[in-house]
From TrEMBL:
GO terms for cellular component: membrane. The keyword Transmembrane applies. InterPro entries: PGG_dom (IPR026961). PANTHER family: ANKYRIN REPEAT PROTEIN (PTHR24177:SF329), CASKIN (PTHR24177). This is Ankyrin repeat protein.
Length: 339
């Protein structure tokens, strides 16, 4: 709590300094903003995604919004290169760019290398080497970002070429070739590991369906615990575990045999991995339920043993939650909620 309080105090002080500087900027003459490094500050703010600073400065002096560096790259260019969505969304704000809309800006903005804004979206994020996500999800985010910028430009710029005679799509493919290979390797290794677990569960639950607890009546072949309520729980849990683990195996096999093209990382591959992980999680939970139901039938009257066993059976599920479901929610968030 103390740390949060200190952060709020520091943030308030920074805003006070920003207000003072904004008032000073309004008094600057034409050449003074560059001498005061205000233009460089705007570009750095775009790189770091500091939307509060950019808003304050543009309101104090609208011309600061068009600051460019030695490569003729402005705040939108740096926002695209560094994946700063909040800054880039200013391109849709009519109070920022006027009534002509983003097309006017896009058509007039190219750097010294002939790169349009869409070309810049094709370059790999500078901080990608220190990514927080897996290579496959990072590739997905790169594709989504490229499509976001693509939706903001005029269709004719999608086939425009830079000084190296390359279109934006060619720049994207060239710069993301290594990431595609890393993503494919990560997906295959993940699928192989989970396939082994899912196959083992399928084998166990298939065998358990024909070797029911308590055995069968030697004359009729009917299970001895057939009329026991826990027997129904056992059979249902066994069936769910068997079907979900089998589904998980098939989905993981689908990942292992995928082509791993660029477009596969957008929806196909993440969705397969997402559903496969969820199915595997359900199979583990169902397997533990079937195990507990089996012991409950065999150990009637031994409540202490049953409760202890059920408590121990929850350990595998608890272990899976931080490791397996964390990946599931990460994929779900980037694939489903990103829409």
């Amino acid at each position: 709590i103390r740390e949060i309080y200190n952060q709020k105090i520091n943030h308030r002080r920074v805003l006070e300094i920003l207000d003072c500087w904004s008032e000073k900027i309004q008094e600057f003459k034409e050449s003074e903003p560059r001498e005061a490094s205000a233009l460089d500050a705007m570009l750095q703010a775009a790189k770091n995604g500091n939307i509060e600073f950019i808003d304050a400065m543009r309101k104090a002096n609208p011309d600061l919004l068009w600051a460019i560096d030695k490569n003729r790259r402005g705040i939108f260019s740096h926002a695209i290169l560094n994946r700063r969505k909040a800054v880039f969304q200013l391109i849709h704000d009519p109070t920022v760019i006027g009534s002509n809309g983003p097309m006017e800006i896009v058509s007039s903005r190219k750097d010294v290398f002939g790169n349009s804004l869409l070309h810049l979206a094709g370059y790999l994020e500078p901080s990608c080497s220190q990514r927080r996500y897996s290579p496959a999800l990072q590739m997905q985010k790169e594709i989504l970002w490229f499509k976001t910028v693509e939706s903001a430009v005029h269709p004719k710029y999608k086939e425009a070429k830079n000084n190296e005679d390359k279109t934006p799509r060619e720049v994207f493919t060239e710069n993301h070739e290594k990431l595609v290979k890393e993503g494919a390797t990560w997906a295959k290794e993940t699928a192989e590991s989970f396939t082994l677990v899912a196959t083992l569960i399928t084998t166990i639950m298939f065998a358990a369906a024909f070797t029911v607890p308590g055995g069968n009546n030697q004359d009729s072949g009917i299970p001895l615990f057939l009329k026991d309520k826990m027997f129904n729980v056992f059979i249902i849990a066994d069936a769910i575990s068997l079907f979900t683990s089998s589904t998980s195996v098939l989905l993981f096999i689908g990942i292992l045999t995928a082509r791993f093209a660029e477009k596969d990382f957008l929806k196909s591959l993440p969705l397969k991995l997402c559903f496969a992980i969820f199915a595997l999680f359900l199979s583990v939970v169902s397997m533990m339920v079937a195990f507990c139901a089996s012991l409950a039938m065999l150990l009637k009257g031994n409540q202490g043993v049953i409760i202890t066993t059920i408590s121990l059976a929850s350990i595998p599920v608890i272990v899976l939650v931080p490791s397996q479901l964390e990946l599931f929610f990460e994929i779900f968030k980037s694939t489903i909620l990103s829409d």
